[in-house]
Design brief:
The protein is α/β, with parallel strands linked by helices and about 575 residues long. It has 5 domains: about 5-110, Beta-Lactamase (2-Layer Sandwich), CATH 3.30.450; about 135-230, 2-Layer Sandwich (Beta-Lactamase), CATH 3.30.450.20; about 260-435, P-loop containing nucleotide triphosphate hydrolases (Rossmann fold), CATH 3.40.50.300; about 435-520, Helicase, Ruva Protein, domain 3, CATH 1.10.8; about 525-575, Arc Repressor Mutant, subunit A (Orthogonal Bundle). About 45% of the residues lie in helices and about 20% in strands. The chain has a 5-stranded antiparallel beta sheet with strand order 2-1-5-4-3. A 5-stranded antiparallel beta sheet has the order 7-6-10-9-8. Helix 19 (about 445-460) crosses helix 21 (about 480-495), helix 22 crosses helix 23 (about 545-555) and helix 23 packs across helix 24. Residues about 1-5, about 515-525 and about 570-575 have low confidence and may be disordered.
Amino acid sequence: MPIAEFSDFCWNEILDSIHNGVVVVNRQGIIVVINKAAAELVNYSQAEALGTRVDVVIPNTKLLDIMDTGQAEYNCHLEIANRVVISNRSPIRKGNAIIGAVGIFQDVFDFEAISQQLDIVKEINKELDAIIESVDDGIVVANRNGFILRANHAYQQMTGITAEEFVGKHVRELVKQGYIGRSVTEMVVERNSHVTIVDIRNNKELLLSGNPVYNDKGELVRVVTAIRDVTQLNSLKEQLAETEEIKNRYYMELEHFRSQQPFRKIITNNPEMRQKLDLAFHVARVDSTVLILGESGVGKELIAQLIHRSSKRSKQPFIKINCGAIPANLLESEFFGYEPGAFTGALKEGKSGLFELAQGGTLFLDEIGEIPLDLQVKILRTLQDKEITRVGGKKSISLDVRIVAATNRDLKKMMDENTFREDLYYRLNVVPIVLPPLRNRKEDILPLINDFLAKYKLQYGYQKWIHPDVMERLLNYDWPGNIRELENTIERLVVTSREECILPENLAGIPAATADPGKQPKTSLKRTLESEEKQIITEVYRNVKSTRKAAAVLGISQSSLVKKLNKYGIHNKPLV
């Protein structure tokens, strides 16, 4: 069929097969050509539109203007039949004369769909680039023919090869030029499976793992090789071993720290003190913050220990911080720990703070009134948020710690003087326990003396006993240093007296008893001593059930013991 005949036969079919709308007008603005897509767009049939002026079919047409200006216009937005289209308009020339114009229309929704798909592809590629570049391992991608398509920055750092030297080249050429020793890509293509080898590049031992990538038809289209610096792995293993060693050292230090704080029994016959002990036992079952108040040496730490070992946290750490014994410039790092290099002199591996060491257990803040104001703010925030941040760190560490605080200072007076924060006081003062001084617990002095005397006799290997005159002076003394002063006094008497009997001349700083009846014990010294002696003898004898053994335990003769048993009416069994 001749070309002209083919054109006449197929012209309309060709135009109607085009997805875009096509409209052609003559110089008078009459539509001489309109394809099926354009007719559907303007809501006319092709027959109705042909021979009609274009501004009737498309009222806002610009084709007439195009013929006047002779200038083509591209990618113009036009509204036709309530639809927005993209229009390209051009004049039709024959020689120098303009004989008509042609408009091609594309629905804007088609453009938006294509643009959206393009944006999605761009976003996926952007994410893929970010993922590949964020990986610490080297990543190399090649096609099935062995040409390198891309290599991430990590690979370039490992090998010392730039992307310009690498990308776009065939792996064989790279082997020939000495960039690589062996080609994992070719091995993967040949075997059509995963391949792993070890190679030396840039004086580094590298582990290379090649993986095939298949299309929907199961054809191999890409080879992705992951490269890991084995030298770096070995270094990480050494660092891990060092970290494990540091952890073990900290653990041993913590165990040693715990061993330095043995729990001691609390001795008291005082009704007020017993009420305080009952309260301590009661609040031990919950995690409320406790504030223990009282003069120096009354046993605040013993109450804190009692609360801990009576609580559900008893198997976890009990950590004590003496806030007054740590220099102010070190308090924050001791409390919260620090990261490596946080300040000059810091350990290179950093350090856990005491809050962290108490994790799961109880933290005893002794002498809380000695904390500087600036640190009080951070303590308050820690108690409120139940988390800390190490000095020099950015990561928060959650805490599960029971707080018990203590002080011998008047915190309310300190608040009035603006040396202690009011909000911190009320955060700590959830359950206050005020301990009475020893001068108000006279009935506890004798049992405490006996306990301390037994302790230091055993510790130093001495056989000592206290003369009644000494005992009377000890009972009548006011003990401004409370139980701590009493214990120190008994230890001093044990180690400094040269005779087995501790005499009045061994006392120093303890004045003789006055004649003031208000200062005298409520019961006579003799009666008090006899009561204590009877209690001790009864307990020992009933435990061992033998006068011979009991006499040995008490350090007296058997005959002396029998006399005392008879004196106190303690009925005994036949002698053994």
